[in-house]
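Hey, I'm writing a tutorial for new members on how sequence and structure tokens pair up, and I'd like a real worked example in the thread rather than a made-up one. If someone can provide the structure for the chain below, I'll link this post from the tutorial.
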Amino acid sequence: MRRRHLLGSLLLAPVLTACFASEGSEGSEGSEGGAPGADGSRLRVALAFPPAENLSPYGADATLLSRLGVTEGLTALDANGAAAPALAESWRRESDRTWLFTLREATFQDGSEVTPAAVAAALTRATEAKPAPAALSGVTLTVEPQSAAVRITTTNPDPVLPLRLSSPSLAVLSPKAYKDGADPVGTATGPFELTKVNGSTSAALDRFDDYWGGRAQAAGIDARFVADGTARANAVRTGQVDIAEAIPVAQAATLDQATLKETATTRTTSLQLNTRSGPFKDPKLRAAAREAVDSSAVVKGVFEGYADPGAGIYGPAVTWAEGKRVQPTGRARAAEPDGTAVTIATYDNRPELPEVAQVLQQQLQKAGFKVTLEVREYSRLESDVLDGKFDAFIGARNSLVDTGDPVGVLASDYTCAGGYNLALLCDKRVDRAVAEADAVAGTGERQDAAMRAEAAILGADAVVPLAHQGIIVGVSTDVRGVLLDPYERTLVGTGTRR
């Protein structure tokens, strides 16, 4: 097994050549020549996922914005997964339901000041979003402006509110952003200002010189959304991009080792079973599917050692999880599939996933299921999965990306009210276990409770963990300062340059 340094506490090349050849004209500064090493060079970045929701910060696009250095919230996550200052320079808990966050002096990219009133309005907008951001699943809060601060009150005690507010979906935008939805173009606070979006194809960003954290070393970013993993790898190899995320494991051997950067992540690839409708509404057939799956074959045959076999919702990069794992109970006895027809959906933005689907198709068919596969680009798939139009879904989910809190992903993904409940699970036992975990304040005790809730979810056979992944990023040898983040929230920052 190829194992990365684990988290502590915690040919389409010609097409891309044409895409990036004229990028220098999109930015407003530093675009003259843009040669490597030139002062103020722009960065050329290839991202795997195009915007699925017009770059709304409230859904799947939130991490696109944070990875490009556009948006920020009141807090951030440090390397150990603890809450760190961002737009809030400090905070304190006033009571079990009330927190006071003191704001730093900062400026929005439209030139207006980050005021308590603006922050309160932005967070209130997030609470009103439909569907609710995953970080707010099961949480009700109110925000009141104070002198140089905001006071946040939750309906129920929320011991991890500072972690929750680090979510990319709770980014703070200026009042100008909310005239029609939540528009991050020129209204955020990060080191790079989004200036132009070309649908699902590309985006241009300029350096925001008044960023509170210091002036970025790159003049801007020319981002392309390239769903094809082979094309991203080719672009790195031929020098058409400086940074390409999510290099497929099958392409890693084609790149110079000096350009490959690998990081352990809290991302797990899983088979989500539709518990609301179709064949997998029957827990006995879910149990049959779970027993048919051999995750070690997936890791060996698809991920080529860049992953570990699925052990649970949390993998080895969450270093405390294995020692606290609880054996699932209450599982149904598996029934004979007897030719039961099922449709499994997945997406090709991560090219390993269609391969995983093929392996699972063979395993399930051997067990007696009749399996049809549906493969699409992610932005054309998510809404249908959430509407229950497929019997199962194979996806890769970073378990700590939403809040940094181990309970947060359980609430959003596996409770009746969860906003990202791909398994469509609504189980009173699971809801109760997640609610109990969410009420625990102490770090160790909260981890223990999270593992009990994980056991309840696995006991329902709503999800079959397949692989715990590392990520491979292609980075030109001319580039310095790429932010390799196990939570996959960041990629480019003030120190990223070429």
